[in-house]
Amino acid sequence: MHISEGILHSQTLIIGATAAVIGVSVGLRKTDYERLPLTALFAAAFFVAGTIHVPVGIGSVHLILNGMAGLFLGWAVFPAFLIALLLQVIFFSFGGFAVLGVNLCVMALPAVLVHLLLGRYLQQSLSRARLILLGASAGVIGVGGAALLASLILAFDGGKAYYDLIRLLIVTHIPVFFIDGIISAGVLLTLNKMSPALLRTTP
Amino acid sequence: MKPAIFQPHFRLIFTFVLGLSVSAIQNPQWLLSLLCLTASALLVVLIRQGKPLAFYLRRALIFNLFTLLIWLTLSWKISENGLEWHVAGMHTALLITLRMNLILCTIWLWLINMTDSILVQAVSKLPLPDKLIHLFILTVRYISLLGELNRQMAQAMKARGFQPKFNRRTFSVIAQRVALLLIQAMVQVEKSEMALKARGFRFASRSSLLDKPWWKTVEISTALLLIIGIYYAQR
């Protein structure tokens, strides 16, 4: 979920960049040097997973999985997503440099919320139904939180002029909202079957 | 020898500053003039470097599908007289379109020929914390590894006749594919940890600003100042 360059005013961009710097600073402080390779690999895995498309109607949507990333990375999602977003700007022209801070907050803050609310449950052994609920919640909070935050930022920046844009943003993300929840639940179930130790690597 | 201004890390900084500056411009005539200038410069550079123009044109068209959606959303409104043009909305859509295209051309112009290895070099020259630079280098390296694995899985699925559709089977297969990527990531970490241990390597925990006990206070006070700033900006 990217807010494109040119939509937000400089004041909002600077606020977003400052918030992002704080988030990245906390993320780096909470990540030990020993954990850097694991963080980098999860960041890379989520970056690659984000390129997988799911057909919806005549088009397709790509996975976001920020909620899942939040579960596995905790506060480290800030530096991890910063790198992913920077690569997306340079190689795919998604988002932009000036709006990088805002987009980082949009993606990473809901992920941190997922970590704070649900992270501790991954340490316990969970039944199938609870894993599904956990995965679906991570997907819904991740994408839903990102859509809500992006809407709030647009409303803060443009006021009434952007209300129609906000509607457009929410409508276009409804399929992602459901698909991310379903896929996140499926991923947790598969991991629990194939590599339960991986679920305990959360920070 | 290229001037220092064209070094990759300076190009990254300029692109960021230019993006911020363009976002502050409110005058469509200014934006249009700058867009024409930047697009012409980009065209000259692309032709001189023998880049495929069709590729850039196609990407610009895809990018502008989004601006089309913005025009479709903002250019009309429902009033007492029924459906009518929304002049203020059209002005906003025009500003957004011009800014978006100007920034796109700026990014393409300044970051032309930027590969992942040049990007890694550029980032390592920026005044950033060591940990972030390490994380960046590792992530770029692992993206190419896992990207290759992802491509192989996609090929294997295709070879077995799998066609993604909006159904339960597709969701299940995609969930397994993401899980396998994560498991592969974990296996890679274990392998590299074993290799590092075998070589007697230990991560040096270099002291940085981030590790100072008072840094947390700086983070909290900046966050508080930001919240106060947002509150006043909204009033």
TrEMBL record, chain A:
Alphabetized InterPro entries for the sequence: CbiM/NikMN
**Transmembrane ranges?**
12-28, 40-65, 72-91, 97-119, 131-156, 168-191
Q: Does the keyword Cell membrane apply?
A: yes
Alphabetized UniProt keyword annotations: Cell membrane, Membrane, Transmembrane, Transmembrane helix, Transport
Membrane topology for this entry?
A: Multi-pass membrane protein
**UniProt subcellular location:** Cell membrane
Pfam families, alphabetized = CbiM (PF01891)
This protein is called what? Cobalt transporter CbiM
**Where does this protein come from, organism-wise?**
Exercitatus varius
